Amino acid sequence: MTKSVLALLLCLPPMALAGPHAIVIHGGAGTILRDHMSAEVEAEYRRTLTKAVTAGHQVLAGGGNSSDAVIQAVLILEDSPLFNAGRGAVFTNAGQVELDASIMRGDDLNAGAVTGVKRVRSPILLAEQVMLNSPHVMLMGSGAESFAAAQKLEMVDNDYFHTKRRRDQLQQAIAREQNVSIPVPNDAYEVRKFSTVGAVALDANGTIAAATSTGGMTNKRYGRIGDSPIIGAGTYADNSACGISATGHGEYFIRAAVAYDICARVKYQGIDLAAASEAVINGTLQAMGGSGGVIGIDPAGEVVYSFNTPGMYRASIDTSGQLDVRIFRER
Amino acid sequence: MTKSVLALLLCLPPMALAGPHAIVIHGGAGTILRDHMSAEVEAEYRRTLTKAVTAGHQVLAGGGNSSDAVIQAVLILEDSPLFNAGRGAVFTNAGQVELDASIMRGDDLNAGAVTGVKRVRSPILLAEQVMLNSPHVMLMGSGAESFAAAQKLEMVDNDYFHTKRRRDQLQQAIAREQNVSIPVPNDAYEVRKFSTVGAVALDANGTIAAATSTGGMTNKRYGRIGDSPIIGAGTYADNSACGISATGHGEYFIRAAVAYDICARVKYQGIDLAAASEAVINGTLQAMGGSGGVIGIDPAGEVVYSFNTPGMYRASIDTSGQLDVRIFRER
Fold first, then answer.
1. What pTM was computed for the model?
2. Which residue ranges form the domains of chain B, and what is each CATH number?
3. Which of A225, A267, A271, A291 is best to mutate for the B interface (most B CBs within 10 A)?
4. Which position among A280, A321, B173, B231 has the lowest Cβ density within 10 Å, counted as fewest Cβ atoms?
5. Within chain A, which residues score under 70 in pLDDT?
6. How much is the ipTM here?
């Protein structure tokens, strides 16, 4: 029996039967320490995280679906130069920005992902188009850009994504490789981290969606693909288990199939999402030497943060509407 | 206690304690029906499958490791124009061949994968180099080719991979898209199938390795990436659970994280590999509308074939040394 028929029988408006909704986001995990961060920079991160999680939550509160909610949150993180996604993404060895993103929804397990995109303003909107309007799940490089153009997405020059801070980071990375010492710029933002962004939401219809967007690793070369665009590694959503978005040293997340493994433990071991996430992030992944973390939501709207690094940029609005914004291990 | 110390204590040569070894390969799954296949073509497939599985088994029998065994088997399948991998791979919409491959080993969960490669003679050898000699797991396109050149792998013109049969298939596919009827060539090989190739082996040290190589889908465009180069979807290996190589409609295999899901069910549900494979291929995947199959090996060397299509090119040499070569559902 559908919910609306049931509502009719009970003489209640259908909305009264709507389930809980909640959203959680991340802006990357890593060596994020209070000692290294000025109050001003911290406030800037908290402001942007709050803005993003609130934008996603408004979609849910208005009866919108979880895919639209995670996209609205990720769009704000992509547009902010604070995070390694969209504008402000890290540089490749060749001095370009190459972006990856993926999205998945847990009702029909549909998904979309793109990798190595240089000219599409919003990689997450392109991943959404792949999910909605192509028979494929994953597209790469110039082919993905041709698809973006066919879908009338906004195209930009690669310069649009460039920031001085990230170019300085590339020069530092190249100098380290060559064992050359160059002056470290006085950059209050510079911390060792994997600042991929992501969001996971549960909507009132019980559908979970997860989305991830990134610029990958500073100084990457050889067309390296990390976990963010890999369904099962960086992103997964299944209404029967959980939704996950990951951030970290992508190679380990691929090898451990992190996002799917957490959902598999929930499904097959019957443990809760918090226990499953901890078992993977502070168990399997830690033992392999992989740094990073995940955010997740279960079908009841329970929100989880799990990471094995000193900090993770993260925020959530839970099923009671409570806003939580955190950066360091404790808060 | 190491095996060799134990062997010394028991006054036995170390070889006497070596574990079982076995190998299984596939050449794709699909609508492969005896009625559509001449005796000559069938014999040709059986000959090549036998040659490939035997080459892999010889590595194991000589004390070699499972990674080398799966590579030797896949090299023969890549070089044969019968299969959609390496020479004889299908054409993209742009009239090119773009190849994907991946390999993983189950002792340390190391892995390598490449996608969208046009000029590397053996994609599986490139995936191996990514696994062994790079800090990355996955490389794409021209970047992956630069890495191949740096590793001194054999480079070829894209023409090397081209066959008339596959060009005819592309013309058919384009005509179908345009609702134009063109004469179907009299091609005894033409059957609707996903003829990715793969191999999974267990060596005497108890290490499982899995490898997959493919040309993807005929008429693919927009830089489409299927499941074959995705660790967790087309390929997975974990000594504590199983090794898997998949073939089929890749988008479904990515969304269901097929290779990893089978290993997860073995690990977390405590069921055997045959039951786990059937639950995924004839359960989850079938329910989603996904066609294809997998081959697998468990830590005891038990070999599994599982598919939801009328046929799958497949062969194995089990722990007793018994050769098995099959094409259709029954044999």
1. 0.93
2. 18-86+102-110+190-328 (3.60.20.30)
3. A225
4. A321
5. 1-17, 181-193
6. 0.93
